[in-house]
Design brief:
Number of strands: 17
Order of helices and strands: HHHHEEEEEHHEEEEEEEEEEEE
Shape: elongated
Distance between the termini: 26 Å
Helix content: 10-25%
Structural class: alpha+beta
């Protein structure tokens, strides 16, 4: 048996024995907001970390004891989560949050069940607390069986409580990350003819490549922030929010090029264009995201007429954007004649 065959057989046996349907979620423990607490709670459930899941509740626990609580999730393999608009109201030194939730629970046998309802969370004023500190915690949660699509099952609001805010937690987090890193270098007001400084937002749903056919769908949010507009290039930064609520800025792989000209300068005929390595850039020029093809395309003009340029195509797959095609027009000849120097679309 080849080593590769042995590894494949061992992996198949491991997954068959443990009945794992999807890759384990990354560890997330965020108690900075009501939405983050709920995401962290289900992250703990997905990772089988029941003591951590138990810790997100306050004095009122969801079961008579921890052992009973853990047994309740014994046949749960994974939970897919949707969170609606969070409503909040203050009362006697505390803020109470109403969080609409819909979940799709997949058992270790592959059966799926849909539940929907609301969680109530409480944040006690941190300035009046004494040790031990009490972070935002779950007071109670009431979920009932639901039917149909996960999105349709998500309640618009919780009971007769306050109206949910229109706050988009992922968007707000992306704005904070952008402001902390790039706000000073970018335009604070939208120049005439430029895109809005309000970021464009997209939702991307997908399944992990190694997930089973019945594995729950995952979701990420993509945000495009306009930065500035120069003489012929408009720059933008992209941020990705995964389904655990974490935000990160996209980095774009670009080939390092060795370009040879006939007479040694940019005005001569191009003799050769060779890729000699790769590097990353965090800024994207003249870019756009196409929802139909799941691609970000960049187009950097090397001079105003656009006859010399580079174009990158980045495909979303398995939770990441990857460079799949890169075209270069290195000739300053007033003609549009790019050549492809990287092409993973057609690679075997």
């Amino acid at each position: 048996m080849r080593i590769a065959d042995g590894i494949a057989a061992a992996a198949a046996m491991f997954f068959a024995c443990t009945q794992v349907a999807i890759a384990q979620a990354d560890y997330v423990d965020d108690r900075s907001s009501a939405e983050s607490v709920i995401r962290s709670f289900y992250n703990a459930i997905n990772r089988k970390e029941y003591a951590r899941a138990w810790s997100y509740f306050g004095e009122t626990k969801p079961a008579k004891d921890f052992a009973s609580f853990a047994r309740g999730y014994a046949d749960t393999n994974a939970v897919e989560l949707r969170i609606g608009g969070v409503a909040e109201e203050g009362a006697a030194g505390s803020i109470f949050f109403a969080v609409p939730v819909a979940i799709r629970a997949t058992s270790i046998t592959g059966d799926q069940r849909l539940f929907a309802g609301c969680y109530t969370l409480r944040q006690v004023n941190a300035q009046i607390q004494e040790p031990p500190f009490d972070p935002i915690h779950i007071e109670k949660g009431v979920l009932k069986p639901a039917s149909g699509d996960l999105e349709e099952a998500l309640p618009e609001r919780c009971g007769d409580g306050p109206e949910p805010s229109n706050r988009d937690a992922a968007l707000e987090a992306a704005k904070k990350a952008f402001a902390a890193t790039h706000q000073d270098e970018c335009e604070n007001e939208t120049p005439e003819g430029a895109p809005s400084t309000e970021p464009a937002a997209y939702t991307i749903r997908y399944q992990d490549k190694d997930a089973g056919a019945d594995a729950p769908e995952r979701e990420v949010r993509l945000f495009r922030f306009f930065c500035d507009m120069g003489a012929y290039n408009e720059s933008a930064y992209y941020y990705l929010a995964d389904d655990s609520g974490r935000i990160r800025q996209l980095q774009f792989a670009v080939p390092e090029l060795d370009i040879r000209y006939e007479n040694g300068d940019h005005e001569g005929k191009v003799e050769s264009v060779a890729v000699i390595g790769f590097q990353v850039e965090d800024v994207a020029f003249n870019s756009h995201y196409d929802e139909a093809s799941f691609t970000i395309t960049t187009f950097a003009k090397w001079r105003g007429v656009g006859d010399a340029s580079s174009t990158g195509t980045y495909l979303f797959r398995n939770g990441e954007f990857a460079l799949v095609k890169y075209d270069v027009d290195a000739s300053y000849d007033e003609e549009i004649n790019p050549e492809t120097v990287v092409d993973y679309y057609t690679a075997p």
